[in-house]
Amino acid sequence: MNDIIQKIAVNALPLIFAITLHEAAHAYAAKYFGDATAYWQGRMSMNPVKHIDPIGTIVLPLVLYFATSGAFVFGYAKPVPVEWGNLRKPKRDMAWVALAGPAANFVMAFMWMVFAILLIATHVTEPFFLKMAQAGVWLNLLILAFNLLPIPPLDGGRVMTSILPHKYAYKYAQLERYGFFIVVALIFLHLSDYWIISVMNIAEEFLGLLVSPLTFLLK
Questions:
Q1: Count of CB atoms within 10 A of residue 127's CB?
Q2: What is the pLDDT of residues 157-209, one digit of tens each?
Q3: Does the pLDDT of residue 61 top 80, yes or no?
Q4: In this predicted model, what pLDDT tens digit does every residue of 102-131 receive, in sequence order?
Q5: Which one is catalytic: 23, 83, 126, 176?
Q6: How many Å apart are CA 61 and CA 109, to the nearest integer?
Q7: 23 has catalytic annotation
């Protein structure tokens, strides 16, 4: 029980920030490209309560965690409402709105990595903060990679729909009604691991390049 409490304490703040900024970034991008639906509904907000889905964000992950002893966890935030027809160039702008969420996670992973480097450089010995920083990097990269799975309604699915020719884009978008079940099946069968691990590794390598000047200066 103590291990579970410690894991929750370490992961809670990074996870809340990761979900909140991801969804707020979608809302901001949608408004920027012409659709203020999410803005008027208060979703362009740093308040996590605006983005938390009671079932998808809290109940479902906890039930799955305890039911599978942590082997299988899945959850989701409250989707940001976007009226695609309100965007100035709907097919093109759909991709930018979708990519805004993962981009926010990448920025947060970078900030947590910088935080971890500064902790080490200043010889902070409290392991809790270092573990939190490491969790912040890992969780944001995981959310980034997961959401880029090319399956609607995930962000990667939106991007695929945006870049495909109109005829194929329409057919591909029809997968959305089955998207939730496809994603759960891929996770349960560990088929999504190949994509998620590869994307996380690529993003982590890129982060390493970005922070390398800071690491060099602090040596």
A1: 10
A2: 999 999 999 889 999 999 999 998 998 899 888 888 899 999 999 999 999 99
A3: no
A4: 999 999 999 999 999 999 999 888 889 999
A5: 23
A6: 22
A7: yes
- The tally of CA atoms less than 13 A away on the side-chain side of residue 83 is 12
CB-neighbour burial class of residue 204 (10 A; exposed 0-12, middle 13-18, buried 19+): middle
Q: Which of 43, 10, 13 is nearest to 26 (CA)?
A: 43
Residue 70 has pLDDT above 70, yes or no: no
Check: CB of residue 192 under 8 Å from CB of residue 165: no
Q: What is the pTM of this model?
A: 0.91
Q: What is the CA radius of gyration of the chain?
A: 18
Q: Identify the residue whose tokens are 């926010």.
A: 104
The widest CA-to-CA distance across the chain, in whole angstroms, is 58
Angle between helices 2-32 and 127-147 (to 10 degrees): 50
